[in-house]
Structure formats: C-alpha cells, structure tokens
Amino acid sequence: MTHHPSEHLSRRRLLQGATAVGAAAAVPSLIGLGATAAQAATSGTYTIRYDQPQKQTILGLGFEIQSDTIGSGNNGLPSQFGGALYDLLPSERSRFYQQMLKVRDDRGFRYCRLALGLYFRGLDASKKHFIDRYPGQSAQLAEMIQQAGIEGIDAEYWSPAPGWKSDPDGAGGPVQPGLIGGRLAADVDYDALSDAMVADLDYLSARGIPVKMWGLQNEPQQSGINYPHCYYDPAVYLAAFKAAAPKIRQHYPDALIHAESHHGWGGPIGKALLADPTTLPYIDAWTYHCLGDDNNAGTPGGGPEDSDYILANNFTSGALGKPVFCNEYEYLHGAPTPYRTVNTAQVIMNWMTQHNAPTWFWLHALKPIGNSEASGYSLGYWRPPGNTDFSDPATAHIQEGCWDFNWGNWNAVAGFVRYMPWNSIRYGVDEAVVSKDQRIMAWKTPGGKPVFVITNRSASPFTFTVNTQTTASFVGNRFSYSLHNQHLSAQTGPTLTLTVPPQSIEFWVRTP
C-alpha cells in the first residue's frame, strides 16, 4: 500500500495538530434552525472559503466488523462459530473487500473497530487474555486489512476477559458470569490487568492486525443488557485507565487513545477524567455514541440519531482542545428510509463542520440475515450457512455464503468513502442561512483537488448557488435511498447553480 508522506506521522500527533488548526471554530449561529421561513426555503447561497485558513485534517472513516456470532436482537452469544469473514465464501470475501471496504482503486475505509470480548472473544486457559475463538479468526482479519487497504483497528473492549471480573453486575443488571454482565473484581490487580490488555494488543499485532486506536470500554455504564459488557463506576474507570493508558502509549505510541466511547467528556466518567490532570496527556480524543432508543430517531423531529441534534449541540466546549468524534452510529429501530439516507450523510457532515471531527464510524459493515437488528445496523447483509429464510424481498436474492449491500444505509456513506480520501483537508463555507435540511461541506484532497458535498433532506427540490472561487469545472455524483453514484453533467465555476432533488446527496468534484 502506498502512503502519502504525511501518513508516516504519529496518528496521535496528526490529530492534535489537526485540532489546533480548527480549534477556534465555534458552533455557528443556527440562523433559521427550526424556523418556518428556513423550512420553507427553496434556495440558498454559499461561498466556499478556500481563500481562508484550512480547518481540520479528515483522516478517513471507520466501520465495525462482526467477526463472531451474536444472538438476534443482541440477545446472547451463540456457541457456534460464525461471523462475516468466517461465513463468506472466499470469492465473496474478496468482493466485500473490494466493493465495500476499498471502493476506489487505492483505498476506502481507514479504520476497523474490533469489539474485544464480543466479536473477538476466544479465551486462553487463564481466562485473562483474548485469543482466536476459532481457527483462522485473526488470519481472516489480517487478510481483510491487507486486501482492503485498511490502516488498522480500533481495539476496544466490550468486556475485559472474565478472569478479571466478578458478579453480580451491581448496577441493576442480571447476574450472569463471564463476558455478559459484571464489573471488575473488587480486588483486581490493575497493574496485571493493564499488562494483560497490552498482551491482547500484542497478540493481534503479531498476527498482522495493526493497532491504530484503543479504548478501555465500550459504553462503560451500560448494564442489564444481554451481550458482553462491563459496568465501570467513574472511580474504577479512572483507576483502570490510569494503569492501562500509559502502557498502551509506551508499547503503541502511534495508537490514538480515546475515552469514553459513549458520552465523551460530558458524562460522569469523562468528568472524572477531566478532574485528574494526570490522565489528560493520555487522552487523544473524546468519543461519543449519539444514539437514542426513541423509535422515531432518524425521522423528522426524532432523537439524538437525527442530524439536527449534532447541528444544535456543542461537543467541544469541555474537550480541552482535544478532538471529538462519533465512533459508533446506527439506527436502533427500523429499516432505512429515504429520509434516513440523507440524515446519515448530514450526521457525518455536522460532526465534521460543527465540531471539527477528524473521523467518523458507522457500526457494522455487514450483519447476518436473521439478526432482527440488521437493517438499521448494517451497510450490507450476508446469509450464514444453514439460513433458509428467503421471505424478505430485500435479501431473498442473497445465497448462502454471499452478501449484498443494504442500499439505504450504504448510499448514505459510500460517497464519503469514495470522494473524501484519507487526509483530506476541510475548508469553511459561508452559509447565508444555516438550514437543518440542506447542508454543505467542502474539502481538498491530499492532491489539492477541491470537492464539496451538498444534501437536501426535505421533500421538495432545493437550489444551491455555490461560489467555488475557481473557474474550474466540477462534475457531480448523486446518491439517495435508491440511487448510487449517478453521474451528473459538469458545471463550470466560479458560481454553480445546483438544484438537488428531494432527499438526495450530491458530491461535486473538480475536473480533471
């Protein structure tokens, strides 16, 4: 894989430098957000400020891989072996790498989130270290990383190995031994625990799985759920982080360390970390899951999954200049809709334009047919061996060991993977009115090519008048719930007049 010279920099330092460039940017005045006039608008004017200082470096996007089994509805852990890579035929694995993860001839997604204790949960004899649960598990992950051109993994625990835990949960959850439920043992040896966490990374790294990010615990104050988790109160999280993070930094100096994979700096754990100055040098970024259990989330007037939530709220004021980003996004209820396709694109854009996020993660690349949550969680589906339910028209054409796109979700993300290469540089855009249903974001590729994306989430056409400040031509590419990468005729700058159909996304790229 060919690297740009800048990619040899520490990911941690690159992020810190990127944030310094854009740190002064404040959340804009949300003029007209929610106002009748803004909602009824049919046009708007915009100026891309390539003439002003650049904002953050956008490193690239991430996804999660289901490399082991989980019960439908996230209910329990089946004993049989399985997973996206395990179940796919070799030819289908290769097609998955090339058509979804890589997309372009060079590369696409940059990071893969690996759920330790959930989708990588094999145990050694001591039950204190994670290893392959089935033959070839880590080899398949290494193959995916190599063939898809992925830089490396975000290694994050859903549960530490059960040898470090005790039951009951103590926070309202069920009394279940092992990976599901529990918390760290009251007499846990934090020094030994942190050594084991480094050893888990060493196991992966030695098998061709580069570690580029690390998180102590996914959603550390979750309880009462029937999939792997571990409850941390703030004091225990603080103690574990203080023991582990310096060792992770020592052994994996280029790995970005993030916290706390749910509420960032704003929750009880984030506040505990902020209150202890000794932790701050080891926190490279704050991570969020802006998800809601509202059945209407991702629909007009919905919950935190709606892009309006990201537009209207401030995720940077308590970050102490460190980057913030969303490392998990999905729809908890229901299937993709035309509204949700554009909403997801706007979530990506609003994190990057309003909060200078350097990356963003969708949840699952693929989910198995038969998991009830698959339609809202996945960019695509695969059919596991033995699954003979062909009743759903959306997946009836998929044969055993094969996969296909979940188009309503994939079309929301695909344009960013295709047209926003690693290390693109974002630039500001002057918006006469900041509208929640029509968004815009601009960047230059590492080679200096200007690109911008515009969205129309409304049910009526919307005309963008965009001053590109260049006389070059731009060619368009349109996505929607049912449309993938439709070519649009070139227009010549500096001012482009672009009418975007309802519930559509357009990427405009300078030519040649």
What does it look like?
By secondary structure, the protein is of the alpha/beta class. The protein is built from twelve helices and 25 strands. The strands form five sheets. A ten-stranded mixed β-sheet has the order 13-12-11-10-7-4-3-14-15-16. A seven-stranded antiparallel β-sheet has the order 2-17-19-20-25-22-23. β19 and β20 (450-456) form a beta hairpin. α6 (190-206) packs across α7, α7 (234-251) crosses α8 and α10 (338-355) runs parallel beside α12 (407-419). It is globular. Mean pLDDT is 90; it is low at 1-10, 16-39, 168-177 and 292-298.
Secondary-structure map with pairings?
Blueprint: H1 11-22, H2 36-40, E1 43-48, E2 57-58, E3 60-64, H3 84-87, H4 90-102, E4 111-116, E5 122-123, E6 130-131, H5 137-148, E7 152-157, E8 165-166, E9 183-184, H6 190-206, E10 211-215, H7 234-251, E11 256-262, H8 268-274, E12 285-288, H9 307-312, E13 324-326, H10 338-355, E14 359-368, H11 374-377, E15 378-382, E16 403-405, H12 407-419, E17 424-427, E18 429-431, E19 440-444, E20 450-456, E21 462-467, E22 473-480, E23 483-492, E24 495-500, E25 504-511
Parallel strand pairs: 1-21, 3-4, 3-14, 4-7, 7-10, 10-11, 11-12, 12-13, 14-15
Antiparallel strand pairs: 1-18, 2-17, 5-6, 8-9, 15-16, 17-19, 19-20, 20-25, 21-24, 22-23, 22-25
